[in-house]
Amino acid sequence: MEQVYWWHDKYRPRKPKYFNRVHTGYEWNKYNQTHYDHDNPPPKIVQGYKFNIFYPDLVDKIKAPNYTIEKDGSNGETCIIRFHAGPPYEDIVSLFLSLISSTNLTH
User: Fold this and answer.
1) Residue 7 domain-assigned?
2) E strand or H helix at 23
3) Per-residue pLDDT tens for 49-75?
4) Residue 107 to residues 8, 17, 51, 54, 102, Cα–Cα distance (Å)
5) Residue 73 lies in a domain
6) pTM of the predicted structure, to 2 decimals
7) What is the residue range of 58's domain?
C-alpha cells in the first residue's frame, strides 16, 4: 500500500492562477483629429497589457518571479513573454503585439 503525504498534491507541477488584460484606446494624433471626432472615433489601438499572476504555494518564497520578452520568429509585430517563478509552478507563455514596432516613434 502506497502512503500519500499531505503535501503531495500541494507541490505537484501546475500552472498558476492568472488573468491578463489588454488596454485599448484611441490615438488622437493630428491625422485622427482632422478625420475623426468623438461621435465617430478612430480605430482602437493596443496601448498596453496588464498581467496578474498568483503564486500562493511557491517553494522558495524569497526568490521573486521573473519574466523574459523574446521576439517572435515568424514576424516582427509580435513578441513572446515568459513568466517563470520556480517550483511547483510551470512557466506561463503569452503572445502579444510589440508596442514599440506598432507605434510611430517620429515626433
Assistant:
1) no
2) strand 17-25
3) 999 999 888 888 889 999 998 888 777
4) 57, 40, 29, 39, 14
5) yes
6) 0.72
7) 17-102
**Within-domain flag for 2:** no
Write the DSSP string, 60-97: -SSSPPEEEEEE-SS-SSEEEEEEE--TTBPPEEEEEE
52 close to 22: Cβ distance less than 8 angstroms = no
Q: What are residue 66's phi and psi, to 5 degrees?
A: -135, 175
Give the C-alpha separation, 95 to 92, whole Å. Answer: 10
Please give the pLDDT value at position 106: 43
Distance, in Å, from the CA atom of 25 to the CA atom of 27, rounded to the nearest integer, reads: 7
3-state SS, residue 24:
strand
- Residue 14 C-alpha cell reads as 501546475
Q: What is the mean pLDDT of residues 37-51?
A: 92
- Counted domains in the chain: 1
Residue 6 domain flag: no
The one-letter code for the residue type at 95 is L
